[in-house]
Amino acid sequence: MFKVDKKTKNILVPVVAVIAGLIVGALIMLAWGYDPVAAYSSLLSSALGNTNGIGETIRAATPLIFTAIGFQIASAAGFFNIGLSGQAQAGWLASIWVALAFKNLPGYIVLPMAIIAGVLAGAIIAGIAGVLRAYFGTNEVIVTIMMNYIVLYSCQYLMQVVMNKNLRVSTDATNNISNGSLRLDWLTNMFNGARINSGIFMALIALVAFWFLMKKTVAGFEIRSVGLNPFASRYAGMSDKKNIIVSMLLSGAFAGMGGVVQGLGTYLNYFTQTASLDIGFDGMSVALLGTGTAIGILLASLLFSILKIGGLGMQTLAGIPYEIVSIVIAAIIFFVGIRYVVELMFKDKKHNYDQPEKIAKISNNGVDGPAVKIGREGEV
What we know:
By secondary structure, this protein is mainly alpha-helical.
């Protein structure tokens, strides 16, 4: 057992979880006759071995940052927003729809309109769960996970039936957007044709905004207070209903932005989704692994994208099934989930306060007063 302070422990626990997950993956590879060294080498080579791979890795991390922030805001308020996938999908469709509908307008007008539409769509979907929780006490886990399916099939209906046929290539995909893209030519060229886009700069700004919101604003303080103790917060004059709704709206807005980046940055269109978006569930995992901090979310999103992008190379270069990557990710989240067991490896450092008398002297600025007498006599 190692003695560490709390801050160091918060860093070591996810690191240990990642290492343990990689070891589990290696053991499974060995059990099935694969070479784990060759597997992980090809994984890193594909994700980080060339400029295109680096660009795709950063591109894959971008939406995860947004969905992870969305999850963490709801989590800080004491809620489990499992509907990030649906909120991101709503943001994706809304942003593409606006970009296609107003394609004749200049890009500098279309792009903000499309982003706002996507953010609002995500916020509205999450806000439904927030209102139901605030005023009717419904379980947000059940509501948000059911909303994933409602949004999934509603988006298909909207695209296939409601959307103007001129905006679609077929019933399965829309046209590519001509205005309002997040792509930057110089960025694409820098990374040798990768789909990296300006969404990464927005994601970094979002991380700073998230940190500032939660640590430096009254709204962030109230959200955290409600999450820690709703009864005490209510007694202190904070509106728990307001903070429930605000936290869910913010959570959905960031998740919606994750979908916007997928639509306006990665794919440049919307197409039929057969299942809920991976970026929603992966964003939850990123937030958990990153311990809810801005820098932790950034590092965890990069790790996940390295595994995702590198896993494709591992399959082609080393001939190892891509499912191994899913096992590694699942193992990492498993070890994060049993955080208490991992924490047993590390013992908290305790401050060395010798005697009550010493504490009393400090509190009296060195004067042998009543506090010292209390310390000596053992009174409470």
